[in-house]
Design brief:
With about 220 residues, the chain is an alpha/beta fold. The longest helix has 16 residues, at about 50-65. It has helices at about 10-20, 25-35, 50-65, 65-70, 115-130, and strands spanning about 5, 70-75, 80-85, 90-95, 150-155, 160-175, 175-195. Strand 6 (about 160-175) and strand 7 (about 175-195) form a beta hairpin.
């Protein structure tokens, strides 16, 4: 089992606390976004579900009062929509990932291809691990966010289950994530129901109260 995958509560909660990302807040945001994504149906364009998940998770991250109090704010630097924390020098953005999300023995990847800006941020993460943190005091303030630690809020919303993790990409090849240096699982498969509605019980087999019959004397 990779050492960089955190999934036990005693590992996950303190790690997220250091990042000022309370687990209960992240799960609440995920739950609300899934509620809004539930309005999507088979008549919508195929990519609508993914678009709605990104839209609503991003909005709720920006709206959440607790995250604001912890120093998080709206961030559009590099045309990558998300939030950032200037004290921690961290940027967080949502990405739709595949069914491997939240599975300890497998590594997820993005569904839609990412551009060069995202690849550059992942490369910056890798270089930071190899050569240490950059001296941001000598960096142009308007571009300093490009040197922040870059993390993804990875989310998968499938028919059978929903899963999510907060993970740090450090390699993107051909527009797709090939490696994360650290993964923090906040919702493993099986913790939340999937998008497929449970099959209703057929009316003929539904349990009903039988009438009480009394014999007239």
């Amino acid at each position: 089992m990779p050492e960089d995958v955190l999934f036990e509560e005693y590992e996950v909660i303190p790690e997220l606390a250091q990042m000022r990302l309370p687990k209960e807040v992240l799960l609440d945001i995920l739950d609300k976004a899934l509620g809004d994504r539930g309005n999507v149906n088979s008549l919508d364009p195929l990519e609508t579900g993914r678009t709605e998940m990104r839209r609503w998770v991003t909005r709720y991250l920006r709206e959440d009062a607790t995250l604001k109090e912890l120093g998080w704010k709206l961030c559009r630097h590099g045309q990558i929509e998300g939030i950032s924390n200037d004290e921690l020098k961290i940027k967080l953005a949502f990405v739709n990932t595949n069914a491997r999300t939240g599975i300890i023995s497998k590594q997820p990847s993005n569904i839609a291809e990412k551009g060069t800006r995202t690849a550059t941020l992942a490369e910056q993460n890798r270089r930071s691990d190899q050569y240490g943190l950059w001296d941001m005091d000598n960096v142009d303030e308007t571009d300093s966010i490009s040197l922040y630690d870059f993390w993804y809020f990875c989310g998968y919303a499938g028919d059978d289950y929903v899963s999510a993790e907060i993970s740090r990409p450090d390699q993107i090849v051909g527009g797709f994530i090939r490696n994360f240096s650290k993964r923090i699982v906040i919702c493993a498969p099986g913790k939340l129901d999937g998008l497929r509605a449970p099959n209703p019980v057929a009316e003929d087999f539904a349990e009903i109260d039988l009438p009480i019959i009394t014999r007239k004397i």
